[in-house]
Amino acid sequence: MTTNKHVLSWIEEMSSLVSPEKIVWIDGSEEQANDLRAQACATGELVALNQEEYPNCYLHRTAINDVARVENRTFICTRNKEDAGTINHWMDPTECYAKLSKLYKNSYRGKTMYVIPYSMGVVGSDFAKIGIELTDSIYVVLNMLIMTRVGKNVIDALGDSADFVKGLHAVADCDEENRYICHFPEDNTIWSVNSGYGGNVLLGKKCFALRIASYLGRKEGWMAEHMLILGLENPQGEVQYIAAAFPSACGKTNLAMLIPPEIYKKAGYKVWTVGDDIAWIRVGEDGRLYAVNPENGFFGVAPGTNEHSNYNALMTTKRDCIFTNVCHDLDNNTVWWEDLNDNPPTNALNWRGEKWDYKAYNKADKVGTAGAHPNSRFTAKAENCPCISSEFNSLKGVPLTAIIFGGRRAKTAPLVYQSRDWQHGTFVGSIMASETTAAAAGKVGVVRRDPMAMRPFVGYDMGDYFEHWLNMGKKIANPPKIFHVNWFRTDDAGHFIWPGFGDNMRVLMWILARCAGEVEAVETPIGFVPKAEDINIEGLADVNLDTVRDLLTVDKKSWLEDVENIKEFYAQIGGRVPAALYDELATLEANLNK
Ligand code: OXD
Ligand code: MN
Description:
With 594 residues, the protein is α+β, with helices and mostly antiparallel strands.
């Protein structure tokens, strides 16, 4: 497929380590993909679903001990420990290569090495970056074919260059004790071993498009962010683009694909999806920020996805889709997950592949009793999404009018507030906090600080990352305005107050009105909040003006508690937190004490 000597010698070196029986290049063709699907079905790695209802759709189950990203086994391996920062786990690169080499040794014996040349971003655009993943898993190949742009044109675009990310993956024994997801940003290299779960093994996604890319972005003057991108079209046909960062499983895919409430739909508003997880952002010639989604598909959380919460995502999964760890309805040979509908299958296998009794389902023990694992996924093609943006394949990206940060806070953060400027907006991003979810292994429901939703994904020191944000601000003549939202405030009984989902558009409309200078706001110690009457609640049954007032309150006491927590967090990040952010923290504290 190539004569590129950098590529060939690296493959040679890796294959002498892992000892495959043979090497197969993935060319992106439908014939080859069909062949691989047939092989995977023959071995049970995939189950072909009812092809009438779900054409070209398959089910896969991972190992039971391998169902989520593993942050405690994810390492940034820079030569100087300080460059990885205190938030990341660090290993010395020489030590790490040696340690993992032992685990890789002969791990492909009797297996095929698949070589996947892929591009993050449209091949040939200024944004695009190339990677090659070596893997022993057909499941990984088939997922990469959906999530990235794969094939000969990628290798042609690479030419003789050595500028590609080298990814080595082995499911090996899937041994939890020896599972490692290691990044060597200084070598453009990713090594992942003993896992078969998406976030750990689809190396183009979190590993490359966030951890390695954030490192490259700092070096080269651009940004790699954990953000969805959506376009909001008004009745005149003008589209404004918004990028938004939320921690894992806070509804990024739902927001990216939202269906406007009736009042807006009738008036002719539309929402278009550019991306649901990752944004690569550069400064354009006009001094605005331009964003692309470097992925080519969606790796979405299945449970909770239904006709009402995310009709567009559901439609996207109806063809050419790989489902992972969902419930298998044996009567219809289809799939099911919690909250898909009220008709759980009575003759089904759960995510572990065991006979499942839907009556035993207990919300408090989802992992134990649910039909689908709470972090079960669909891998679906972006082109199958009914609301995919016409700019999805744009070479220059879409201009950003607003950036939104959000978290899952039961009490502190109001429904929405606007930062005063880029520096303050960077501060607002740096203090983001949320409750942990099932997307990463570990405890669920604990509040943790998650700056820009990038805590698990920055490939270098977090303080340096903040500095990079501030430096980018200096290069943007027309910066987007920065906001913070919280859809998850609860009442004293623990119920969500704001309806969320499509109704979040009402908040987006205020945000765009602010960006256009069309609406006033109230200055508070934390930034600008809306006047309650400026959030359009027409047609909402359970929300009145008092509810909105309540959602917009800034409780000084809980914010002052937060300030103490932020101080601790900044101290934990260490000496590289920029002075400008400490100034913002001091201003916040002084404002709250006024
Ligand atoms: C994801 C995540 O899978 O953030 O997108 O965990
Ligand atoms: Mn994500």
